Each structure stands twice: as C-alpha cells, then as structure tokens.
Amino acid sequence: MAKPPELVWLDNLTPKSTRFDDTYYTRENGLEETRYVFIDGNRLIERWREGQSVTIGELGFGTGLNFLAAWQAWLDEAKRQTTSQDVEVPSLTFISFEKYPLNKDSLAKALSPWPDLSELAHKLVEEWQLTHEGWLKLRFGSVTLHLYLGDAADGIRTIPSPIDAWFLDGFNPKTNPDLWSEALMQSIYDASNPQATLASYTAAGWVRRNLQSAGFSIAKRKGFGHKRDMITGSR
Ligand SMILES: C[S@@+](CC[C@H](N)C(=O)[O-])C[C@H]1O[C@@H](n2cnc3c(N)ncnc32)[C@H](O)[C@@H]1O
User: Fold this and answer.
1) Domains, in order of start, for the chain
2) 233: CB partners within 8 A, 6+ apart
3) 155 lines ligand 1 (CB under 6 A)
4) Residue 60 CB–ligand 1 contact under 6 Å
5) pLDDT tens string 60-82
6) Is the sign of the CA dihedral 69, 70, 73, 76 positive or negative?
C-alpha cells in the first residue's frame, strides 16, 4: 500500500506535512486561494462558458480541496447554464496523483473547514478507499475522478486521458523538488492537449525554467493575497 503522510495539525485544524515541512493549503483562506490560483489561473469558468470540455490534471491530490473547489465551480456553472440559453456544460474529468494519501478520517478532518464544500466533501469521503496502489476511478454523476496512488512520475506514463488544464500543487519546491523536476515537467507537457494551460502558486525561477524548457510559455501574475507572484502557462 502507498505510504501514509506524516501529518501534524496546526490549531487542531490545518494539516501540515512534517515530511515536506509545508501545509496542504493556506491556513486562513485556502479555498479562496485555490479559486484564484487554479480555477481563475486556468480560465476554467470562461472555457466552460464557451462549451469547452476541460480535463483537469493535478500534481498532488492532498486533501482534495482543489478537486472539490473545481467540482463546485463546475456545478455552479452547470446550474447557471440550465437556467439560461447557453450551451450545456460538458462532463468534468479530474485526474490527480498522490504518493502519500490521507486516510479517511484525516481527509474528512482536513476538509471540515469549508462549509461551502461540505456536501461534496461528504461524497468524496464516503467513496474514499485506499485499497491498492495505481489508478482508482471514482464516479460522482457527471464528474469522474481518476486518482493515481503512487509517485506522479510513474503514474503519468499511464495517464487515462490528455490534460487541458494543469493544477501544479506540489509542496514548496525547496522541500518537494521531485514534483517540479525537469523530467516531470516534460512529462506533463507530453501528457497535455495542444491548447493546454497550467497554473501554480509558485513562481520559483527554476520551476519556471523547467516548464519553459519542456515547451510551455510561462507568465507571472500577481499572487494571491499578500503573495507577490504566481504563474500561469500555456502549451
Ligand atoms: C500542497 S499538497 C497538495 C494539496 C492539494 N492539492 C489539496 O487540494 O489539498 C502536495 C501533495 O503532493 C503530494 N506529493 C508529494 N510528492 C509527490 C510525488 N512524487 N508524487 C505524487 N504526489 C506527491 C504530497 O503528498 C501532497 O499531498
């Protein structure tokens, strides 16, 4: 079975990895940051409004916060469109990788600070079973989660479908360099559709260079809250 994460809980609420010396999400406003960096950074709402089907890829599933935030945003957009004349929102596929999966209790606890997501969190936790390494497929109506339990560098070789929008959400590149390596950035480029985009909270110079040498065009933009920079990119 996959190795467990090494967790401590800050204020008995926010999970922090002692292996990587970093928190899974920002303590005060992790959900807002997810929306700003990953959902807006990949222009997901606009793309859904144009009727595009967007397969999302993520490095580092962690607590599932990004997955639930994307699912909620997709649901909100689908509801908006059923009450208007717009095109129908296509189904959502989310593909993610996790080497050190949280157990069911930790997952439920880590998702408890987000009342907006509680219904979806409950559905995810109910289906959460760490039975084997490799690919798991969880279906939630029109939303499908493919989750690889193991090292992303291995899983990406058998990714079930090409990616349109990447959420690059490893821990701090200083403590988790493997998830930002040149080889892995090349693999995500190779696993992308021609119009693929990416977003990340980090703007570390060597991460940008790894993405650029893989073939992505990278732009810096204002980071979330008090953070100076984040990056977006396109293939
Ligand atoms: C910042 S956390 C991700 C937070 C997550 N996106 C969320 O919504 O909660 C980074 C995650 O990457 C995972 N990770 C680190 N190295 C990895 C690797 N080589 N392959 C797959 N996952 C890895 C960590 O275990 C951790 O769960």
Assistant:
1) 7-17+29-234 (3.40.50.150)
2) 197, 198, 199, 211, 216, 217, 218, 219
3) no
4) yes
5) 999 999 999 999 999 999 998 88
6) negative
